[in-house]
Amino acid sequence: MNVGLRKALDLYANVRPVKALPNVECRYPELDLVIIRENTEGLYSGLEHIVVPGVVESLKIITEKASTRIAKYAFEHARDNGRKKVTAVHKANIMKVSDGLFLECFYKVAKDFPELEADDKIIDNCCMQLVMRPQQFEVLVMENLYGDIVSDLCAGLIGGLGLAPGANIGEQGAVFEAVHGSAPDIAGQGIANPTAILMSGIMMLRHMGEMDAAQRAETAMFEVFTEGKSLTRDLGGTAKTNEFARAIVEKIEAAS
Q1: 91 is catalytic
Q2: What is the pLDDT of residues 46-57, one digit of tens each?
Q3: Residue 208 pLDDT > 90
Q4: Which domains does the chain have, with CATH numbers?
Q5: By C-alpha distance, which of 142, 32, 146, 36 is closest to 88?
């Protein structure tokens, strides 16, 4: 269903903020970066076929239009959110034509944003650098498959997928989601961590221009995390899902 929505609404930009939260044990408590993933093509185009029995081909689709569009979105996002640097992630040293085109489009767009630093990293080196020195990155932009993998890697640096919001942005609409899925194995037990869906909702409010509402919700959430009294089990606390939510609601009400 999610893939269907992305295709039907042409939600070409997948946006995954990665920001450490107070009182959550993680490797890099100061981490604050954004991953922007091209959402419509690459290997996820699903163009696969059997050549002969035992041999299959999967086609990686990279177009100038999509590469230019996602690069422009990444630079605009950086500019509009006070970021100073955009990094393209690729494997153009091996896939010289496909990833080469993606990289070429990236640097062509970069010329329109002279106030921002633009550089690039090969995907394997990027993953190593994210584990060792992620502070060097601010906004990373990449094609579909790389974005899927790297965004989950980065979620692990701040405490897991339960803390990872996501947005799928298009020119005519947007869909916001907790990237961890629905977790049916723990449904109804009151132990789910709703942080990711709350943060996705905050992203949606900002996208809609509801800046005050977004700020009030985010401030309340940070206060609950800072106090550490109402955290869910996966964060080392004992609060049920509704108790965690109630604590945030009370903070919002107290500030009103």
Answers
A1: yes
A2: 889 999 999 999
A3: yes
A4: 2-181 (3.40.718.10), 189-256 (no CATH)
A5: 142
